[in-house]
């Protein structure tokens, strides 16, 4: 396994009885980056994360965390991983500081580390308030502080903004974005919200129905999204597409439209000429930009919004 990846999985699969909920996925999470693990509810994100953390056993395949197989080197690996899966657990009758102190004692860490992580998650001013009086966003930040206290190389956050209000979401988002630069940590962030992943991740893996259907740098997706196309409503669209293709045009049919990607102005004029010469009447012509949402809908199948 290569050292460039903080997480690498090979054919990772999980079946519950006869139901396959994670199907042969090959994740590659480069070190020092934020990987957005995106998929609708029930797609298999939490199950995958539980396998990465050694909380549930894969039915097939392997997961390598920081170059080590999690099944065979669990204790060695987990010391270098911080995680927040589901809601954070904390003692409400203790302060934020006291909650973190318990963790330093259990892990045998220096108490100095508490102030460092409180600063990282911007809770230093509220450190001595009772955790039960924290807002949801502050509780979540306390959970992230707890995950960071052991100075992990990898931080795994499963839907960390679930249940937060817009201000809380923004706080957590800014925090996540700042962490790799401040600490060098790699972050695997799962979410069902395209817009959340879009704002923080540099790489995205999309899981749908247990299968990883896309994995690449976010800017590749954004480039795809930036593509413009023209859509023409013409008579006999199938025949028109066929004739133009034979003439060397890179056109294609999308539903009732004849489409061409990224055309120059001159190409549009020539295309119209060709259609008219071949007696294909044009009823309408419009430019369209695809949004990231369009691409996700295309990838995940129509009607399956993320
Ligand atoms: N212990 C289990 N036994 C049987 N089925 C399970 C078990 N755990 C999860 N599943 C099923 O596996 C599928 C994937 O669930 P998972 O929680 O991994 O999805 P998810 O992408 O994290 O979605 P969510 O964001 O809703 O948690 C779901 O259909 C779920 O019902």
TrEMBL record:
Gene3D superfamilies: P-loop containing nucleotide triphosphate hydrolases. GO terms for molecular function: ATP binding; ATP hydrolysis activity. Keywords: ATP-binding, Nucleotide-binding, Transport. Pfam families: ABC_tran. It comes from the Bacteria. The keyword DNA repair does not apply. Belongs to the ABC transporter superfamily. PANTHER family: ABC TRANSPORTER, ATP-BINDING PROTEIN. This is ABC transporter ATP-binding protein.
């Amino acid at each position: 396994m290569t050292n460039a990846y903080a997480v690498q999985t090979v054919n990772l699969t999980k079946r519950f009885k006869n139901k396959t909920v994670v199907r042969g996925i090959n994740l590659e999470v480069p070190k020092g980056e934020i990987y957005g693990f995106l998929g609708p509810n029930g797609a298999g994100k939490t199950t995958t994360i539980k396998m990465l953390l050694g909380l549930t056993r894969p039915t097939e395949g392997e997961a390598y965390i920081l170059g080590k197989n999690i099944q065979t080197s669990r204790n060695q690996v987990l010391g270098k991983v911080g995680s927040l899966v589901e809601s954070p657990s904390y003692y409400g009758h203790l302060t934020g500081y006291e909650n973190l102190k318990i963790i330093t004692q259990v892990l045998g860490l220096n108490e100095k580390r508490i102030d460092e992580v409180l600063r990282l998650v911007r809770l230093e001013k509220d450190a001595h308030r009772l955790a039960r009086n924290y807002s949801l966003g502050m509780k979540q930040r306390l959970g992230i502080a707890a995950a960071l206290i052991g100075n992990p190389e990898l931080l795994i956050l499963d839907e960390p903004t679930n249940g937060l209000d817009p201000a809380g979401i923004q706080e957590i988002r800014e925090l996540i974005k700042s962490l790799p630069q401040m600490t060098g940590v790699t972050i695997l962030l799962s979410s069902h919200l395209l817009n959340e992943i879009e704002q923080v991740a540099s790489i995205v893996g999309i899981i749908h129905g247990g299968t990883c259907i896309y994995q690449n740098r976010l800017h590749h997706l954004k480039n795809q999204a930036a593509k413009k196309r023209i859509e023409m409503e013409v008579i006999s669209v199938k025949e028109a597409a066929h004739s133009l293709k034979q003439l060397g045009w890179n056109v294609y049919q999308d539903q009732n439209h004849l489409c061409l990607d990224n055309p120059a102005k001159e190409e549009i004029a020539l295309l119209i000429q060709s259609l008219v010469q071949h007696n294909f009447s044009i009823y309408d012509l419009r430019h369209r930009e695809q949004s990231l949402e369009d691409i996700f809908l295309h990838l995940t199948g129509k009607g399956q919004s993320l």
